[in-house]
Automatic annotation (TrEMBL):
Top-level taxon in the UniProt lineage: Eukaryota
Pfam family, one: HTH_Tnp_Tc3_1
GO molecular function: DNA binding
InterPro entries assigned to the protein according to its UniProt record, in alphabetical order: RNaseH_sf, Tc3_transposase_DNA-bd_dom
Occurrences of domain Tc3 transposase DNA binding (ranges): 6-48
The protein's name in its UniProt record: Tc3 transposase DNA binding domain-containing protein
Amino acid sequence: MPQKSLLTDTEKAVVVKRLAEGAKSLEIAKELERDHRTIKKYLEDPSKVYQRRGGSYEKSVTPREKRKLKREMARTPLATSKELFDAAGVSKGSKSTRCKVLKSIGKVLKANPRPSLTKSHKEKRVQWAKDNMKTDFSKVLWTDESRATLDGPDGWARGWIMDGTACPSRSKRQQGGGGVMIWAGIIGGKVVGPVRVQQGVKMNSQEYTKLLDQCFFPWYRKLGRAAKRDLIFMQDNAPRRQFNDLESLWRGIQEAAKAISSDEVLALTRSVDDRLTRVLACKGGHISP
């Protein structure tokens, strides 16, 4: 059996436990399906911490070179590791080394797709921001519908493949798929819902009214008179998409919604004022989330 990587913390705990029970290292190696030499090497010095030859990846560049890389990363976001090292004038090294160094100062992300904004769009965004600068957004109920799928949103999956091998195909959903459509809202530090949109329902004005009767009005009737008077309902008119009926996924969504803390919701609702200021600053253009 060839040697693998170092033992994990879980495997180390198993080794200690089995040794206390009187098991031999060879028996433990067979149970863990690890090379006997790996077990013996760990037992020789259990407290030893692995050190990479030549020091850590971060020390592959000097502090001055790292500052140059930070400046280039801020100047040209979404650039490749080779492009960043070339622009900073830093010795490239291997791709794995470059990525390890950059990982200490940044992370890999995909560009956020955004619709183009016309002059009219920007003017309307600026006007809306001006009109609502004094709005108390803690009294605004923000609502939206969203589709959750077991395999994640389309186009998000990616991974490594061997050089010289063909890229495997991936099934693309046209309609349906393994997911559920949910409706929910947030106001102040509270979550309203989530509520599951029934299968086969076409979300027109009549069905949306039924949805509100099911999830919004029961919550609304429990509010005090002052809260009802001050509440502003902000709906989202995005059309819903079809989905599959998956009970286990829906239960997971419900449990995740219950786990959302009041502080997390407050952070979202309180950030609206700051977003309005940023919309005005960029003259109606796109702002970061």
